[in-house]
Specification:
With about 400 residues, the chain is of the alpha+beta class. It folds into three domains: about 5-200, Lysozyme-like (3-Layer(aba) Sandwich), CATH 3.40.80.10; about 210-275; about 275-390, no CATH class. Helices cover about 20% and strands about 20% of the residues. It is built from eleven helices and 22 strands. The protein has a six-stranded mixed beta sheet. A four-stranded antiparallel beta sheet has the order 15-18-16-17. Bound molecules: zinc ion. The site of zinc ion has 5 residues, from loops.
């Protein structure tokens, strides 16, 4: 019998996602991205397997579970960018740690991580400063709260940026600043997060969680508290007078009174679920185009799927066009319109290895939209339009 390299010093076993065999091999591996599940081990494993969202899960007792084979692509980083490279799923290994972004992990987890990282770093020649928490590389598209693309979409894995925690898992360096914010590609939308990520934070410094952090105040909006779940039916707003509304029932986001408490139900579900990019629906994901795309409403990279079947780019839309958009209009923000599939121009010719990513979308001639995980390159109908993240 062969000894699996990865078994050395680790309690490791395989419990592969049903999607494992469908995932393409990665061409290069430059980063390791560390996540926190924001929920218990059992539920997290089920969800990660179902969607193929990690290569490894490290449970609280130090057990390591393989979910996607390490040479294949796992969908763990979502909308991501580091040093100008986007879609980090294509160039990274994703490790989910059972735990929370602002709570200590167990010593069994630290031991397991130290060994798992040691092996992976050696195998792929990855330096310590390319082992990054998810929150360092995740970014948000323009929306009603932030008019431009921004860092601070998530705090996932945040504690894995702390120097004391990194030392315990065998990491002795980290990035000193955010290269995408510095280069102007992104705006920083979470100053607390960037402090944790890029400075030495003493162990005793409390994370601003707890009651006050869940309450809307001057300088703390619904977005600051609930992020992209602000308008979700899972997010509950308790007003100072005791009345309650869910995120999907609120229309005027500028009139939320200070003192409103924000509660997110099913935190483990909402925290990690939006990893899979979706077409945003007007009337459901936002009341207006600018609520969904912020200042990007007029950009070429904002795509509108009109109810009458037309597909248009923001650069073609007049102010009147935007006002007359019907509820149910689909929108993609931050996308390349790759054109149409023809017999001599297949999906791969248009977007290369991105063709089967969950973040790539196909608008079929009958008007339906499918993601890259739902199509088979050999039988995508001619005339299908392709949209992908740059
Ligand atoms: Zn994550």
């Amino acid at each position: 019998m062969f000894t699996d390299l990865y078994a050395q010093g680790l309690k490791i076993h395989s419990n592969y996602s049903p999607l494992n065999s469908k995932r393409s091999p990665r061409k290069s591996t430059q980063y390791i991205i560390l996540h926190t599940t924001e929920g218990g081990g059992k539920g997290s494993l089920a969800k990660l397997r179902k969607y193929g969202e990690a290569h490894y899960l490290v449970d609280t007792d130090g057990t390591v579970i393989r979910i996607i084979q390490r040479e294949r692509i796992a969908m763990h980083a979502g909308r991501s960018m580091w040093n100008g490279t986007t879609n980090l799923d294509n160039v990274s290994i994703g490790i989910e740690i059972v735990g929370y972004h602002d709570k200590p992990i167990t010593s069994a987890q630290k031991q397991a991580l130290r060994e798992l990282l040691r092996q992976l770093k050696a195998l792929y020649k990855i330096p310590d400063n390319k082992v990054l928490p998810h929150s360092m590389v995740a970014y948000g598209r323009p929306n009603r709260w932030h008019s431009v693309s921004h860092r601070g979409r998530k705090r996932c894995g945040m504690l894995l940026a702390r120097d004391d925690v990194r030392r315990e898992i065998g990491l002795y360096s980290k990035p000193a600043f955010d290269p995408d914010v510095r280069a102007g590609r992104l705006k920083n939308a979470d100053s607390y997060l960037s402090t944790v990520l890029f400075t030495v934070v003493p162990l005793a410094t409390a994370m601003p969680e707890g009651s006050a952090a869940d309450v809307i105040a001057r300088g703390r909006s619904a977005w600051d508290i609930a992020r992209e779940n602000y308008n979700s039916s899972h997010t509950l707003y308790i007003f100072p007078d005791g009345s309650r509304k869910r995120g999907n029932e609120i229309t005027d986001w500028n009139k939320l009174p200070p003192g409103t408490k924000v509660q997110i139900e099913n935190k483990e579900v909402v925290e990690e679920s939006p990893e899979v990019e979706k077409v945003q629906i007007l009337g459901k994901d936002g009341a207006s185009a600018s609520e969904i795309a912020g200042a990007a409403i007029h950009r070429e990279s904002t795509i509108y799927f009109m109810k009458d079947g037309r597909v248009r780019q923001g650069s073609e839309m007049t102010a009147d066009d935007l006002l007359s958009l019907e509820n149910g209009t689909g929108m993609l923000v931050g996308y390349v319109h790759g054109g149409v599939i023809r017999s001599n121009r297949r999906a791969f010719d248009i977007c290369g290895p991105r063709w089967n990513l969950a973040t790539t979308f196909y608008r079929m001639p009958d008007g339906t939209i499918k993601s890259g995980t739902e199509v088979n390159e050999r039988n995508i109908p001619l005339g299908t339009m392709v949209f992908f993240q740059p």
